[in-house]
């Protein structure tokens, strides 16, 4: 029975991972994709992979092998992948290892060393030149990328699946008419944010005193119900003496930030408790009286990978 179970498990892994495709790439960039501020260069080359399956796939120790004879020592370069790719999502590898030629072959392997997908383009001879995709040479942004059209299509004939076209970095591959324009947005996961206590009370403090602890501290952040990592940052502090004197964990409150990581458990996010310890410094020339202030938190989530 153990042998049968192992065979079934292996088949399942192969079925899930085989859905990933090399969806789009540029080897002759015409655009400053890495935002370096200069002219386009080999640093602006990129490869996009796409997951059309209904499963999130772990890409840890997957590799992309690039054959193009650009290296004097070896005919190929290898890029090792990390992270995951969600169902229906794209992952772009910007500036992969090596320098890609206008004629070559790109191959995607899973962590077991199994070939998952490949594309041969230009004059690269993989034993059958007739089914190669076009070469990667580009004249402008209008023919900068080799892309699968329709998006994600894989007939195993590269000349059928790939065309030269305008890039759609990290988005669905489409052909635009002259009077059309693409628009896109990446929406982060759901964020729920609560902070306790809602009113910090430092009680009675003396002039020229430091490290006065809040009577009802510490501050507690609760983001349960969120579906993504959550970043919390203090972006404004108002009121005297809080603007200068409020400290969080011994540092100036303004700019303090916390990253709350989603720990997946049965498909739901769990978050470890996060506490922040506020203290207040009071200047020597502070006037007696009752003072009020506010803390503004900006809460954001990263876009899905």
Can you put this structure into words, describing what you see?
It is a single chain. The protein is mainly beta. It is 8% helix and 32% strand. It has 2 domains: 2-165, Lamin Tail domain (Immunoglobulin-like), CATH 2.60.40; 194-300, Sandwich (Immunoglobulin-like), CATH 2.60.40. The protein has helices at 2-17, 158-161, 242-245; strands spanning 21-26, 46-50, 57-58, 63-67, 76-80, 84-85, 90-94, 104-109, 115-121, 145-148, 162-165, 194-196, 212-213, 219-222, 230-238, 246-248, 251-252, 257-260, 263-265, 268-270, 274-276, 278-280, 294-300. The strands form 7 sheets. A 5-stranded antiparallel β-sheet has the order 7-2-1-10-11. The protein has a 4-stranded antiparallel β-sheet with strand order 5-4-8-9, with no helix packed on it. β16 (246-248) and β17 form a beta hairpin. It is elongated, with a radius of gyration of 27 Å.
